């Protein structure tokens, strides 16, 4: 099946061709016709499956069928994402695919100046990609009007719920027209997601490309048992011995990401850390350097890694296992994307054996273990409890230099700025 057979216009087909895509992915084959048929969608799809184009292309097609008259464009499509990185990635797709269409779009997130965003709204935009918190800041300032929204997309809805955005989402939903098309995309279908879908979607069509909590079958998974104190040494050994060119490494905390990145630099391995406390400019620069290959290792927390879209990323390493089992699925999904193979390696100490068991229950398989000679764990070391709460989720209140006159709590605003 070709993109033309899916019913897309010549302008969109031209833009798709320029992006180098010739054949739709499974999620695109299923989602595009359903969305063009103006049905609500509940889609289970992991990142790397082409889901962004799966909802962006049909929305642009439908917007084209009912072009607005001249004048200031109202917001007709709203796409909510959990993080700044993902919002930027989705907006880049919107810009690329709408190249030959007369639509204006903008991306809205915290951590950057609000005035340029206000200026974009004043000039008029058709499509808004936003994180929930900063969007509510604009709503509080009355700088955005959502009364004409025809399409609502919740992208990576599971992550938005994990990050505590449910109340923010409900506030936004209350301001939207009742008559609209709703599209919900989630990597997993938890009970919370089902409840949200029941309240949001109208007789939705279910699309499930990746089976529930199923890790990519193209990703080779491997566990290296090792003592906690020797993890960094083993990681450096693996990178150097394997001559790895590009590796995404996950830590549980922001402090851990900074510490590990600095240690790798001392080992002569180029590295950058990316997490919520980094400025948007620093995060963008680190990601660009990693994609370009000038930085070999990107050390990230779970939240900061959402939206990282890198074709043919060969290696993902869990320096520390996540304390939420489903996050393991998200992590290893950063490799093995778009049909390419990848390997996900977990460095597991005795403290994390219960986490490993929980993960294996979720993915319904045992992960092979391989001991590296010279790094075998000391059998006399007893496990110590690992903190159940992750420090990835920022909880400290931050100061907004230009606080908006919004009823939304400062805690909620600060959470969005740090995402």
Would you kindly provide a written description of the structure presented here, covering whatever features stand out?
The protein is of the alpha/beta class and 419 residues long. The protein folds into two domains: 205 residues, P-loop containing nucleotide triphosphate hydrolases (Rossmann fold); 145 residues, P-loop containing nucleotide triphosphate hydrolases (Rossmann fold, 3-Layer(aba) Sandwich), CATH 3.40.50. It contains 16 helices and 13 strands. The strands form two sheets. The protein has a seven-stranded parallel β-sheet with strand order 3-4-2-5-6-1-7, with helices on both faces. The C terminus is likely disordered.
In DSSP terms (H or I, runs of 4 or more residues), the helix count works out at 16
- Count of DSSP E strands? 13
CATH topology of the largest domain: Rossmann fold
Distance between the termini: 38 Å
Order of helices and strands: HHEHEHEHEHEHHEHEEHEHEHEHEHEHH
How many separate domains make up the residues? 2
Mean pLDDT over the full residue set: 85
Low-confidence stretches: 388-419
Label the CATH architecture of the largest domain: 3-Layer(aba) Sandwich
Categorize the overall geometry.
elongated
Q: If strands are numbered along the chain, what order do they take across the biggest sheet?
A: 3-4-2-5-6-1-7
**Biggest beta-sheet profile:** 7 strands, parallel
Helix content: 25-40%
**Rounded radius of gyration (Å):** 22 Å
The CATH superfamily of the largest domain is P-loop containing nucleotide triphosphate hydrolases
Strand composition percent: 5-15%
Overall SS class: alpha/beta
The CATH class of the largest domain turns out to be Alpha Beta
